[in-house]
């Protein structure tokens, strides 16, 4: 489902995607050829937008995204960038990054000249810019559901460690049926979801193998 909200005579208006909803379908021209969302089935995907090619903050971000890309791929996770620049601009920019900074950008970048993908994903913020996408991040799981959405202002470069940590957390909670506490890192204790009945809450205090502060806050190792 493409999150279609309504249609006027001159444009289609899409509802903003939400956490837990299916990721909006797309088929787009990229630096690696034409790609569709369906090409990523069975893998996690971080889809992110940047304001423009050949800009200083975006350049530092792309270098940083490339640095975490091998780690993400170990986690069955792909990267896909986007801006409303042309594919020729993307190719020239990543070639400049490789020539001047010695970093080869290995993941594809969508050339969203018609703003189709950025509109479906709510990457355009008219109050921030009428011509550029903001720094948005969408984490999409292997079933193509949106699991996390993060927006940054155009003035602030993103923290790559958090994206790795976020995917690690989501994959851990899916696998073990737990949740993760603030500042969690792999190897830290996780939180056992709290009981949903009074009887289960009373039984929780008798369970072993957990560190409990109270019935509603128990941690364990996995």
What does this structure look like?
The two termini are 36 Å apart. The strands form four sheets. Strands 7-6-5-8-9 form a five-stranded mixed sheet, with helices on one face. 28% of the residues lie in helices and 25% in strands. The chain has 222 residues and is an alpha+beta fold. It folds into two domains: 4-158, Glutaredoxin; 177-220, 2-Layer Sandwich (Antioxidant, Horf6, Chain A, domain 2). It has five helices and twelve strands.
Please give a handful of descriptors for the protein shown.
single chain; 28% helix; five-stranded mixed sheet; Antioxidant, Horf6, Chain A, domain 2; disordered N terminus; Glutaredoxin; alpha+beta; three-stranded antiparallel sheet; 222 residues
Main pleated-sheet profile = 5 strands, mixed
User: Which percent band covers the strand fraction?
Assistant: 15-25%
How many domains, as an integer?
Answer: 2
Question: Termini distance?
Answer: 36 Å
For CATH, the homologous superfamily of the largest domain is named as Glutaredoxin
Shape: elongated
The helix/strand class is alpha+beta
According to DSSP, the number of beta strands is 12
What's the quaternary structure here? single chain
Order of helices and strands: EEEEEHEHEHEEHEHEE
Q: Assign the CATH topology of the largest domain.
A: Glutaredoxin
Helix content: 25-40%
Please give the CATH class of the largest domain: Alpha Beta
Q: Give the helix tally.
A: 5
**Overall mean confidence score, pLDDT:** 91
Widest sheet: strand ordering: 7-6-5-8-9
The CATH architecture term of the largest domain is: 3-Layer(aba) Sandwich
CA gyration radius, whole angstroms: 20 Å
């Amino acid at each position: 489902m493409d999150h279609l909200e309504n249609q006027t005579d001159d444009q289609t208006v899409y509802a903003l995607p939400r956490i837990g909803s299916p990721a909006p379908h797309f088929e787009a021209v990229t630096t690696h050829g034409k790609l569709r969302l369906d090409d990523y089935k069975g893998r996690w995907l971080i889809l992110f937008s940047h304001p423009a090619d050949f800009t200083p903050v975006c350049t530092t971000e792309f270098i940083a995204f490339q640095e975490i890309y091998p780690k993400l791929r170990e986690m069955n996770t792909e990267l896909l960038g986007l801006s409303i620049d042309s594919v020729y601009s993307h190719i020239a920019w990543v070639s400049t990054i490789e020539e001047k900074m010695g970093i080869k950008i290995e993941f594809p970048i969508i050339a969203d000249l018609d703003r189709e993908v950025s509109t479906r994903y709510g990457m355009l913020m008219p109050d921030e810019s009428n011509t550029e996408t903001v720094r948005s991040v969408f984490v999409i799981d292997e079933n193509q559901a949106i699991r996390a959405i993060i927006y940054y202002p155009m003035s602030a470069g993103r923290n790559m460690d958090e994206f790795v940590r976020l995917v690690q957390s989501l994959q851990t909670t899916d696998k073990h049926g737990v949740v993760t506490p603030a500042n969690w890192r792999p190897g830290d204790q996780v939180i056992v979801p709290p009981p949903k009945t009074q009887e289960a809450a009373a039984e929780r205090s008798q369970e072993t193998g957990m560190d409990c502060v109270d019935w509603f806050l128990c941690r364990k190792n996995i």
